[in-house]
Design a protein that fits this description.
The protein is of the alpha+beta class and 435 residues long. It is built from twelve helices and 20 strands. Helices cover 29% and strands 23% of the residues. Helix 2 runs antiparallel to helix 7 and helix 7 packs antiparallel against helix 8.
Length: 435
């Protein structure tokens, strides 16, 4: 069966290797590696496949998956065979290709209060094959370490709470206003608690009690029913930790990791090849794909890290945690994405230059080519959503799907951004009556 045959039979799915998606630059083939981890040898194979069967470009997604772009209907069968032989193809079925998301340093982070990677694997094993689960449903498992996950947009969020000696797992359901914390359980009982919630949500859908595809859209009474099923202890909302770093050196005890960012998540086959080489020369031979849309190389020595950061900066990675581009998030945009209405990455680069004063204060800017907001499921201080006339809807402190306060041309946005230095300046500059 060709890729076009597959596409013709599927609507509203989450793309994978078995389920390619037709977009502006050809077919998009998404690889969902468990835990976001691939071996260096697999990375080399994927890079070669992207050259031979695609257009040589890849994306790292906001869930730590890897997309090969520009595949044609003619090259797809050979690509499918190659990735199948390497064990990089998702399981059959209509549900999520990958149920859980973890920090790229889960399992090796000395600040974690429990082993988030082990818990995620247990949830995948217990609930990964639940019938009737929507393809985009996913669970964030946050062990309380150096890279918090509260902004990834998960349906079910699990986070460490309590002190190290008595660490527990707090659970939250996605809600229209953010996360609604519903209770806590022990690390031992967390897989069963999460499975109860996941299974019940799927059962509600199978029985026709709801048509919601994400927990944030679930009716209030049904959300309360889910919360009551897991037999959780009362819990206070865990404190919000500072957002995860998007680039630079991360300390891991005696060793360090290099988090190499990519402008807007776009990666070339050559860059993936280079990362594989650095991991083999200086690290553990493993590449970890980060929800920050970058590549993490663990297990580096103090001697190796300097070489990696230097070489990475010279081949297009962002290795400086203070780079202003890290505060700007953008989707592939038009023409790469068929659903995009604007060239989001090109416009985002202009906005990044104009907003240098604002982003230096830690503010975030999200530029989305359409209201889906694929590149960033969370809130941003300023969200710009593309319109068919090339202008952008403006959302302050919200999501791409939120109602806009006004819409402006690229030139008007640039003019208003340039003098902005603080969030108060931002709110003043983008009031409906601003000139």
């Amino acid at each position: 069966m060709s890729a076009q045959d597959i596409i013709a039979r599927r609507r509203g799915w989450c793309p994978g290797v078995r389920r390619p998606m037709e977009t502006g630059d050809g077919l998009l083939v998404r690889i969902h590696p468990p835990g976001g981890r691939i071996a260096a040898g697999q990375a080399r194979l994927i890079a070669q496949a992207a050259r031979e069967h695609g257009n040589g470009l890849l994306d790292i997604t906001a869930r730590g998956n890897l997309q090969i772009r520009g595949v044609s209907d003619g090259t797809y069968p050979a690509l499918l065979m190659r990735l199948t032989e390497e064990g990089l193809v998702e399981a059959e079925g209509e549900g999520p290709s990958r149920l859980t998301v973890v920090s790229p340093i889960a399992g090796i982070d000395p600040r974690e209060r429990f082993d988030a990677l082990a818990l995620a694997q247990a949830i995948d094993s217990k609930a990964g094959a639940v019938e009737g689960l929507p393809p985009k449903f996913f669970v964030a498992v946050d062990g309380g370490g150096s890279m918090p996950l509260h902004e990834v947009g998960a349906d079910l969020h699990m986070a460490a709470t309590g002190e190290d000696a008595s660490a527990a797992v707090a659970l939250a359901l996605a809600a229209p206003g953010g996360l609604a914390w519903i209770g806590a359980t022990s690390v031992r009982d967390a897989p069963q608690a999460s499975c109860s919630i996941i299974s019940c949500f799927a059962a509600m859908r199978r029985a026709g009690r709801t048509e919601a595809r994400r927990l944030r859209d679930l009716e209030t009474d049904l959300a309360q029913e889910l919360a009551g099923l897991a037999a959780l202890a009362p819990v206070a909302s865990p404190p919000v930790r500072p957002a995860a770093s998007r680039a630079g050196v991360i300390g891991l005890g005696a060793e360090v990791a290099a988090l190499l960012a990519l402008p807007f998540g776009r990666c070339s086959a050559e860059q993936l090849d280079r990362a594989a080489g650095w991991s083999e020369r200086f690290g553990t031979g493993e590449i970890r794909l980060s929800f920050t849309r970058g590549i993490l190389l663990p297990g580096l020595s103090s001697e190796g890290i300097a070489c990696v950061l230097d070489e990475a900066a010279r081949c297009g990675f962002i290795a400086d945690a203070n780079d202003p581009r890290l505060s700007v998030i953008a989707c592939p945009g038009r023409p790469a994405c068929a659903g995009a209405l604007t060239p989001a990455p090109d416009d985002a680069l202009q906005f990044a230059g104009a907003a240098a004063g604002l982003t230096a204060s830690g503010a975030t800017l999200h530029v989305s080519g359409c209201p889906k907001g694929c590149a960033h499921p969370g809130r941003a201080d300023l969200t710009l959503v593309g319109r068919s006339d090339g202008s952008y809807d403006v959302v302050l402190g919200g999501f791409a799907r939120d109602a806009a306060s006004l819409y402006l041309s690229v030139e008007e946005i640039m003019t208003r951004l340039m003098p902005v230095k603080t969030l108060n300046d931002l709110r003043s500059a983008f009031r409906r009556t601003a000139r």
